[in-house]
Automatic annotation (TrEMBL):
<dbReference type="GO" id="GO:0009450">
    <property type="term" value="P:gamma-aminobutyric acid catabolic process"/>
</dbReference>
<dbReference type="Pfam" id="PF00171">
    <property type="entry name" value="Aldedh"/>
</dbReference>
<protein>
    <submittedName>
        <fullName>Succinic semialdehyde dehydrogenase</fullName>
    </submittedName>
</protein>
<keyword id="KW-0560">Oxidoreductase</keyword>
<dbReference type="InterPro" id="IPR016162">
    <property type="entry name" value="Ald_DH_N"/>
</dbReference>
<dbReference type="InterPro" id="IPR015590">
    <property type="entry name" value="Aldehyde_DH_dom"/>
</dbReference>
<dbReference type="InterPro" id="IPR010102">
    <property type="entry name" value="Succ_semiAld_DH"/>
</dbReference>
<dbReference type="InterPro" id="IPR016163">
    <property type="entry name" value="Ald_DH_C"/>
</dbReference>
<dbReference type="InterPro" id="IPR050740">
    <property type="entry name" value="Aldehyde_DH_Superfamily"/>
</dbReference>
<dbReference type="InterPro" id="IPR016160">
    <property type="entry name" value="Ald_DH_CS_CYS"/>
</dbReference>
<dbReference type="InterPro" id="IPR016161">
    <property type="entry name" value="Ald_DH/histidinol_DH"/>
</dbReference>
<dbReference type="GO" id="GO:0004777">
    <property type="term" value="F:succinate-semialdehyde dehydrogenase (NAD+) activity"/>
</dbReference>
<comment type="similarity">
    <text>Belongs to the aldehyde dehydrogenase family.</text>
</comment>
<feature type="domain" description="Aldehyde dehydrogenase">
    <location>
        <begin position="29"/>
        <end position="493"/>
    </location>
</feature>
Length: 497
């Protein structure tokens, strides 16, 4: 534990170094003025890694002012200039991927190799939007009169407020910040309070890449004060948020006061469907990849597993054999597949869902046990990957997103039946199904009411494709050329000559 706002980061085979633990506003590293401190905890042990001074109204106001001032010049830079800054940041992230991954595992818990994969994935958004900055095109439209000309311009929306979650502390930053910067916007970013260190490291690299003062700003801490300031300030013209549907709805209401543009990536309740003509081994592997990444703490993780009745016993048997090889522990340990849950609340939700299912007749085929081995109640909560059979629709786990390593399996008879059951939810973020029928692949992918559909693919996310949900799972898309559109205004210009 450190009292000087620094934490020692030690890489494998290297000595330790002190990591900066401050906020970044107007090109300077600053501490909060109100004196309140934020504890950053290692979720695998419960140990306090560091204290960080919280931002409040004053720091957030200063960050907005800085971003607004910088926008006046950043928005006028050429696409090529913005692309060069982003390309530098991309290369720096790849160069420092070991360190970023280590920081992420310390504060978030996911296995080190998984964290490394996230850094590379997150850097991919920076690389993609460095290229996409050069592809923001306007348009000319044939006029109805010979003495008129019609032109359509694409211009940056302005200052962007970005609020990111704890489960992907690198990729969610780059997925929001990179398209905003590529479009010519400036950014005020608030990372999750439980995982600010990854954000700090990325902003260190932004500084090293040479972004001008005020273009990128980092505020850490009090969600209510930071959020209230961001939402009430008219100079903030766009909000991009990833988090729960409940918080998203509140932000949507608050955005109405100043008519901010919004992008919301919210909760999910993903179905995973296995038809009887599927490659069963591939389906089991896809199910595990979809469900157990980050200990199931993924918004697009499968939550309901529908397996056609003729193959359900074989599916469960193959799944049990695979789960025997999963190692649970600290993400820094060699060979670990599942790290800790983020905190006690996450642990209790997993426990409640399993107990509710068992009380209503579900059978535990594998796992079912959790444990606490931390130095304090702040962390050290682990749960075995748990496979449930005899699951029915009235169980809590089939109605709510678990956000943990639980696989509830239920049978179905027909294609029409399973599509109706899969769509029977207010959420519509991601869905998955496995089949070897081309015709069925088209029919089912078109029928599922979800923004992302993986066909024989348990991990479909990629920087060049649009990510986002239907219904109460969100508004807007991130990734691909779609992801930059939310940061651009469309201006119609009519000339009379």
């Amino acid at each position: 534990m450190s009292n000087d706002y620094t934490v020692i980061i030690v890489l494998k085979g290297e000595g330790g170094r002190k990591m900066n633990c401050k906020m970044y506003i107007d090109g300077q590293w600053v501490e909060g003025k109100e004196g309140e401190k934020l504890e950053v905890v290692n979720p695998a042990t419960g140990d306090i890694l560091v204290y960080i001074a919280k931002a409040g109204y004053a720091e957030t106001e200063r960050a907005i002012e800085s971003a607004d001032k910088a926008f006046k010049t950043w928005s006028k830079t050429t696409a090529g200039e913005r692309a060069n800054y982003l390309t530098k940041l991309y290369h720096l992230m790849i160069e420092h991927k070991d360190e970023i991954a280590k920081i992420m595992t310390l504060e978030q818990g996911k296995p080190l190799q998984e964290a490394m994969g996230e850094v590379v994935y997150g850097a991919g958004f920076v690389e993609w939007y460095a290229e996409e900055a050069k592809r923001v095109y306007g348009e000319t439209i044939p006029a109805s009169k010979e003495n008129k000309r019609i032109m359509v311009l694409k211009q940056p929306v302005g200052v962007v407020a970005a609020i990111t979650p704890w489960n992907f502390p690198a990729a969610m930053i780059t997925r929001k910040m990179a398209p905003a910067l590529a479009a010519g916007c400036t950014v005020v970013l608030k990372p999750a309070s439980s995982t600010p260190l990854t954000a700090i490291k990325i902003f260190e690299l932004c500084e090293k890449a040479g972004f001008p003062k005020g273009v990128v700003n980092l505020v850490i801490g009090d969600a209510s004060k930071i959020g209230e300031t961001l939402m009430n300030d008219f100079r903030v013209r766009k909000l991009t948020f990833t988090g729960s549907t409940e918080v998203g709805k509140k932000l949507m209401t608050q955005a109405g006061a100043t008519v901010k543009r919004i992008s919301l990536e919210l909760g999910g309740h993903a179905p995973f469907i296995v038809f009887d003509d599927a490659d069963l081994d591939k389906a089991v592997t896809g199910a595990l990849n979809s469900k157990l990444r980050n200990c199931g703490q993924v918004c697009v993780a499968s939550n309901r597993f529908y397996v056609q009745e003729g193959i359900i016993d074989d599916f469960i048997l193959k799944m049990k054999e695979k789960l025997k090889n999963y190692k649970i522990g600290s993400g820094l340990e060699e060979g670990v597949h599942l790290g800790p849950l983020i905190d006690q609340n996450a642990y209790e939700k997993v426990k409640t869902h399993i107990e509710d299912a068992v009380n209503k007749g579900a059978k535990i085929e594998f796992g079912g046990e959790g444990f606490h081995r931390g130095s304090s109640a702040a962390g050290g909560y682990f749960y075995q990957p748990t496979l449930l059979s005899n699951v029915t629709e009235e169980m809590l786990i089939m109605k709510e997103e678990t956000f943990g390593p639980v696989i509830p399996v239920v049978s179905f008879k027909s294609e029409e039946e399973v599509i109706a059951r899969a769509n029977d939810t207010k959420y519509g973020l991601a869905a998955y199904f496995f089949t070897q029928s081309l015709a069925k692949g088209f029919r089912v992918s078109e029928a599922l009411a979800y923004g992302i559909v993986g066909v024989n693919d348990g991990v479909p996310s990629t920087p060049q494709a649009p990510f986002g949900g239907f219904k109460e799972s969100g508004i807007g898309r991130e990734g691909g050329h779609y992801g930059i559109e939310g940061f651009l205004e469309t201006k119609y210009v009519s000339f009379e000559i």
